[in-house]
Amino acid sequence: MATTEAYESTDRTTAEKTTAEYLTAALDGRWHEVRERARADLTNDPDFAPHYTPDLAEARNKTLAQMRKLAGRGYAADGFATEHGGTGDTGAAVTSIEMLAMSDLSLMVKAGVQWGLFGGAIENLGTARHHEQYVRPTIDLDLLGCFAMTETGHGSDVQELETTATYDPETREFVIHSPTPSSRKDYIGGAAEHARTAAVFAQLVTGGQSHGVHCFVVPIRDEDGNDLPGVSTSDCGYKGGLPGVDNGRILFDRVRIPRENLLNRYGDVSEDGEYSSPIESTGRRFFTMVGTLVRGRVTVGGSAGAAARVALSIATRYALQRRQFQAPGDAEETLLMDYLMHQKRLLPLIARSYALGFAQNELVSALHDLQAAGDDVDPTDQRELEGRAAGLKAATTWHATRAIQEAREACGGAGYMAENRLTALKADTDVFTTFEGDNHVLTQLVAKELLTSYAEEVREMGPSDWMRFAATTVSDVVKKRTAAQQILQTILDTRQDNEEDGSLFNRGTQMSMFEDREEYLISTAARRLQGAQKREDSAFDAFNFVQDHVLHAARAHIDRVVLEAFVAGIDSCTDEAACELLSDLCDLYALSVIEEDKAWFMSHRHLSVERSKAVLRGINERCRTLRPHAATLVAGLGVPEALLGSAMLDGPGTDAVRDTLLDR
Amino acid sequence: MATTEAYESTDRTTAEKTTAEYLTAALDGRWHEVRERARADLTNDPDFAPHYTPDLAEARNKTLAQMRKLAGRGYAADGFATEHGGTGDTGAAVTSIEMLAMSDLSLMVKAGVQWGLFGGAIENLGTARHHEQYVRPTIDLDLLGCFAMTETGHGSDVQELETTATYDPETREFVIHSPTPSSRKDYIGGAAEHARTAAVFAQLVTGGQSHGVHCFVVPIRDEDGNDLPGVSTSDCGYKGGLPGVDNGRILFDRVRIPRENLLNRYGDVSEDGEYSSPIESTGRRFFTMVGTLVRGRVTVGGSAGAAARVALSIATRYALQRRQFQAPGDAEETLLMDYLMHQKRLLPLIARSYALGFAQNELVSALHDLQAAGDDVDPTDQRELEGRAAGLKAATTWHATRAIQEAREACGGAGYMAENRLTALKADTDVFTTFEGDNHVLTQLVAKELLTSYAEEVREMGPSDWMRFAATTVSDVVKKRTAAQQILQTILDTRQDNEEDGSLFNRGTQMSMFEDREEYLISTAARRLQGAQKREDSAFDAFNFVQDHVLHAARAHIDRVVLEAFVAGIDSCTDEAACELLSDLCDLYALSVIEEDKAWFMSHRHLSVERSKAVLRGINERCRTLRPHAATLVAGLGVPEALLGSAMLDGPGTDAVRDTLLDR
């Protein structure tokens, strides 16, 4: 099915590098070496070849075996601080888990749950006693954990979780309890079978008073895998995809755990039951805790992006070998990729994959630097990071859903066969728009940050409440560029607003269109919010009245951040031919975004009738320019040959494509 | 999981009917009784309850067992002429198969293959000797057939199939042969396991001359299921969905069949090898044959629509029980359905489901009448029917993909659990956009009909060839309304083109906007085609240059046909309250279509800047108007309680929804 040759690193001397390799290097970014190592690891070991294993028991065993192999190689150490037994390279940790998505999404999710979420909770919410006891066995898989946050009744609004952890000073224990059916922990990865211990989020109650949601380490199974007394786990069974992840449910019936099992970095209870915390506000405390877990969200976005790259690589390579319908006068039938429609289906999605990839790199870099800074983090930077993580997670997972769907359809009946991999990519990633924060809720979170000038007090409020605090003057964050300041300003100064077609290919023009849209949407959203509050009788009605406008503003913000990252990414590319391709891809990305919101640009007179037609012409033009480079562009996405895992690509024509790809 | 009470017919006396029941009756259309019988059958027999059976062997057995049960009830007789042993009610046949989609899509596809495609080939391409021999056992399942058209190398361009059927006058046999790997029959439902006989499409060769694609009855397996000599079948294995359908591949190594096995209605070979046909042109003959098989395409569109209704019913009912986030001052958390965004995610899709449902009804009705007319069919009517079938199949299957995806996401994590059914609906229907004609190719077919004034000679041409024939004056078909002429003209006369918000709710205005767009796009496409031919050097380049414009024109045409059907559907509704809801839904449909193509309307000055903003306001307004009726609207979609098959709908809140639904 896939080539079995050993993975050959693309790190050659400059003279030997292909354009595709330069593209990959640019798109790989700061953790290029980590990505190269992962490509080699996943390619050279047949145990990590993409597989289709629909049976739950088989898939779960396979995933766990893969995890043990990774653990044996010390794969997880990057995610933990040196003093806790890791290497403290957050960027590498996030990047390695993302790369697993190219092999198998169940593996990526399972690794993300064990090391990112469970391990992350221990690492970030715990203190020395927890680090000593749990970090090493978590890395080595001697301790299999799960992350028990979501409940049947509460997923998006986790502040309202119902599970209680009531302190009993008599025995110096917390009593973990599920008081209602809706308080059952649900969809928890690992809870069905493998996890022995859970990081349980519950309302901490002591002396009859609740102090909000905290996290507790709760053993749930014995050595043999039987539920411990008071714990009832059950299996979620089949899902849309991710068969290798054993999602399950947990009910607690007054389960007692030692006081020390509270992860007490942000809140503690003394032996006699007195609560203390360095953060006074319950809401702020909660969001600080959740904020430290932002890594999970970053990883999910990155992994969705990786899956989209695999799908687009498969569909594009198929379109470069599959012919259908003969044009008059031609000896052969026409390649799918030669149809303009087919180019328009795939190339803009490839462009967006690049765009989001560059943005993801900047996010991971910011996350890494922030975590390296330890306790010296500026809270504003932390919140900005969380906002960007939320926005990019939404953008990238939506992109993945769309790109994989299009890739599947673009391969026709062959695309529907499991052996060609696209259907599993679609099924496995489908939940990514939902978990680690529902995309609509996350987009709203972005809007909240934009509209409230980061006022601390709004952070703990529900959606219809915080809107009341939207300030007349909008947060400075709008103006703040996320990528290389100076380049961006230089480019912006070259904007051309004339009516000629070519002006839309001007990067400064594109950037200013993105910026103007964002500013206009945010400021008008703020005004409408205030107006609505005066008119409508309830805060909820006011919120509802402008909800779509507010979400639109947030999406415009994310688009701008992504475009800026693309521009900075081009600047970082060291090869002229590769730069030129990236520049054309960037045009295609920018024009596609404008095209999708073209009615808005026209309605608000940011685009004249004449110019509006030039947008579509520009997209067609760039598709034609990029068509001859299609193989190079997907090779640049950095999915190794062996990880495509698509049977049809071994059909006739594959060799020709492979030759193109390897053409130096 | 589902209610176990017997299905209660909604056919009560007028005084007792609920608004939802009036909606269902209107949407059910001419075969309302067939639908009611199917609802009762599928609800009252637990063997037809929706199920999740991922294992291939189990799923295939279950589906076959269900088929046998249906056959035992004479389920398939409607699809065959009275003189062949059926009842000759084509509309009922299509409608019953469509209704199976509400229970299980594998069953629908398997039934569609056996009775619609295989049976349809026998019925429509065969003559008396075939009808006598095969129709009865096909109905009774004593003969299990498959429809072997698609090959590994050719799916969309079936005129270029490679399988050969060479006549040998010595033995008076045809020799069926697969000369190349790409000529292998592929993805064939039934070929992996159950089918004993195949309707094989192959190039008929006699006396060294090819006469194009014809259909042959070829036995492929013996009684015990072993491949017959020269036949090699294999199993496609797992697919994205449809586990109950045993798709497979067939290779023929010089398999001999009697001369009489040629389905010889449109072309025959005499004993000594002379070819004869009532249709001289090879291409026209081929399209005439394929045209008689249009029923399959109609059924696929209808079934996709049925699956979308199930998904939207589930997601809407979930949104009416699920609460998340508490608004300040409210005692309870807010219902998902009360968020404007959530309304905008689901209600326009519900509106589109109604719209496409009405259009599908008209299509089935036209198909029925045409088939009833037998050989007296006006070829223009036949081609118009084929064009509409192609367009609606594309529109409805794309709608299903989108609606089911949105429904899944709108249910969050719960939506990802197999027990809640949405993921299987998505996986099973995903191939509908591809099979029975790839949607892009079908949309192109619509354009072809529109642009070439139905010139007979262009019918057999490939896409880049026929464009040369595009006439300066566009086909009259554009002007021809598809539904109740008179009502439409009356309504059209009331159009209001003023700038007031309300004017966009005027049906005449909406209709004329749809019509104007279609006319403009078609006439400009024709002009551009001609211009492109003068400028570009090859027909293919000319075609490629305007491909997106041409597809846009076809989509605009389909949108108009659908809107007209909706208008006629409202007219046929006999209850005032139901009419009012339908009218609001129709506004939502029309405005959603305009919103999605708003930039075009503005670019071409069919919508002013001021008015353009009113479109969005109108959509929000209609969402708010329809919100209180959400339960009624989905009840109107006509999916019986027992066929929802979604575990989460038995959760808290379901009873309240059920009460609302039954509120008379």
From TrEMBL, chains A, B:
<dbReference type="InterPro" id="IPR006091">
    <property type="entry name" value="Acyl-CoA_Oxase/DH_mid-dom"/>
</dbReference>
<protein>
    <recommendedName>
        <fullName>acyl-CoA oxidase</fullName>
        <ecNumber>1.3.3.6</ecNumber>
    </recommendedName>
</protein>
<keyword id="KW-0285">Flavoprotein</keyword>
<dbReference type="InterPro" id="IPR037069">
    <property type="entry name" value="AcylCoA_DH/ox_N_sf"/>
</dbReference>
<dbReference type="InterPro" id="IPR012258">
    <property type="entry name" value="Acyl-CoA_oxidase"/>
</dbReference>
<feature type="domain" description="Acyl-CoA oxidase/dehydrogenase middle">
    <location>
        <begin position="146"/>
        <end position="255"/>
    </location>
</feature>
<keyword id="KW-0560">Oxidoreductase</keyword>
<dbReference type="GO" id="GO:0033540">
    <property type="term" value="P:fatty acid beta-oxidation using acyl-CoA oxidase"/>
</dbReference>
<dbReference type="InterPro" id="IPR036250">
    <property type="entry name" value="AcylCo_DH-like_C"/>
</dbReference>
<dbReference type="GO" id="GO:0071949">
    <property type="term" value="F:FAD binding"/>
</dbReference>
<keyword id="KW-0276">Fatty acid metabolism</keyword>
<comment type="similarity">
    <text>Belongs to the acyl-CoA oxidase family.</text>
</comment>
<dbReference type="GO" id="GO:0003997">
    <property type="term" value="F:acyl-CoA oxidase activity"/>
</dbReference>
<feature type="domain" description="Acyl-CoA oxidase C-terminal">
    <location>
        <begin position="511"/>
        <end position="648"/>
    </location>
</feature>
<feature type="domain" description="Acyl-CoA oxidase C-alpha1">
    <location>
        <begin position="291"/>
        <end position="451"/>
    </location>
</feature>
<dbReference type="InterPro" id="IPR002655">
    <property type="entry name" value="Acyl-CoA_oxidase_C"/>
</dbReference>
<dbReference type="Pfam" id="PF02770">
    <property type="entry name" value="Acyl-CoA_dh_M"/>
</dbReference>
<keyword id="KW-0274">FAD</keyword>
<dbReference type="InterPro" id="IPR046373">
    <property type="entry name" value="Acyl-CoA_Oxase/DH_mid-dom_sf"/>
</dbReference>
<dbReference type="GO" id="GO:0005504">
    <property type="term" value="F:fatty acid binding"/>
</dbReference>
<dbReference type="InterPro" id="IPR009100">
    <property type="entry name" value="AcylCoA_DH/oxidase_NM_dom_sf"/>
</dbReference>
<dbReference type="GO" id="GO:0055088">
    <property type="term" value="P:lipid homeostasis"/>
</dbReference>
<dbReference type="InterPro" id="IPR055060">
    <property type="entry name" value="ACOX_C_alpha1"/>
</dbReference>
<dbReference type="Pfam" id="PF01756">
    <property type="entry name" value="ACOX"/>
</dbReference>
<keyword id="KW-0576">Peroxisome</keyword>
<keyword id="KW-0443">Lipid metabolism</keyword>
<dbReference type="Pfam" id="PF22924">
    <property type="entry name" value="ACOX_C_alpha1"/>
</dbReference>
